[in-house]
Amino acid sequence: MSSPTSYAVTTGAPTTGLTDLPAREIAALVRLGRVSAREVVAAHLARIAEVDPRLHAVVHLEPHRALAQAIRLDARVRRGLPGGALAGVPVLVKDNIDVAGQTTRAGSEGHDGGLARLDAPVVSRLRAAGAIVLGRTNMDELAMGASTQTSAHGPTRNPVDARRSPGGSSGGSAAAVAAGMVPLALGTDTGGSVREPASQCGVVGLAPSPGLTPMTGVVPFAPDLDRVGTLTRDTGDAALALAVLSGREPAPHRLDAGGVRRLRVGVVTELLDRNQPEVRAALEDWVARLQGLGVAVTPVSVPDAPAALECYTHLSSVAALGSLAPWVRSGRAGEEVLRRWELGRQLLAEQTRLDAAREVRWRLRRQAAQALRQVDVLVSPTMPTVAPLLAGEESARELADPMGAPYTDCWTVVANLAGLAAVSVPAAVGEAGLPVGVMLMGAPGSDEQLLALPRLRP
To answer: Which of the residues 3, 108, 147, 169 is marked catalytic?
Structure first.
């Protein structure tokens, strides 16, 4: 099933050559010695220098270290040694994930200034597979936001339309991938922070099954909801990256086209309301194309899905009281962090509201499990809107709309609360040339199925 994955970038000439290639093709070329890792890294550093001054997706760059790593990898390849599944692939890492020798700021002034002693396991696994870490990407402060406007580093702009938000909290990672700065970036997803920016920037955002990617070395927000995920330009790269991050051996796809067509798809009826018309139209067209390829599609119900956002906000705000206390007590936390911190404190004193949120989560888990006994994959819009304008831009009134920025993650939180694997894939380009994403959700362990479905071709 073909999905549009490229958009006009407003920051310069279109990308060419090495910066256009998917990660798996770069790695194959480097392993075969047809291109050097040094050339690959240099091309992507040049692309960052070209486009990032306007986008501000990258907040820390280590070009000399990256080039030195690439040169060492090239020497290994010349000696006939294995290059790795991600040989020479440039990657960027969200600012809340430890990279040895760097300060993990998490988009906040509340950090202690210390340097990480070790790479987070997800970073060390990337390096072990031959990937080259170029630097860090911007994010909403402490992952509390959906716009990448609350960062102490300043806001990031959407490469499709620089007047607009790239989404958040992993907006820097999504913008970097969409703009061709890297083919792969790491993000974190507590309530949609990988999938929402993927939808707004027109890339693939994977929130893997809970527990599949290690969380050690990652600044926690709500630990039982947090996941490390990936931003890529297609699902093939997402599958390769997930194999590396989960510690599995990359393997050929086990689902052939016939197996994918036999997957049963359910459209979540409760997530069809309150969407912008172009978002709903994009979903309906995407589903119709699936049906045209022989996939069985049926409506399914998750009755408490509309209550998920309030449930998520309450539970995550309480969880943050323990996980983010040192950052808040520094006295340098920003307005959004303090707002959620205060909400968490209030909820601790209002046990009835907290118990009600926990009950909604329990029901969501039960309802999602029941729906997934009827079908293999749940489908909905990733978010109810296209990318909103940044605050301060002309016509930014849409940010105050009930379907605007505070509510853009109202659908994505369902997967985190229900413990589902989820991915956002590009579905269409809307009337204003803005990307629209479709979200696929499945039972824990269904990641391969979710990534295989969008690869169907007529």
So the answer is: 169
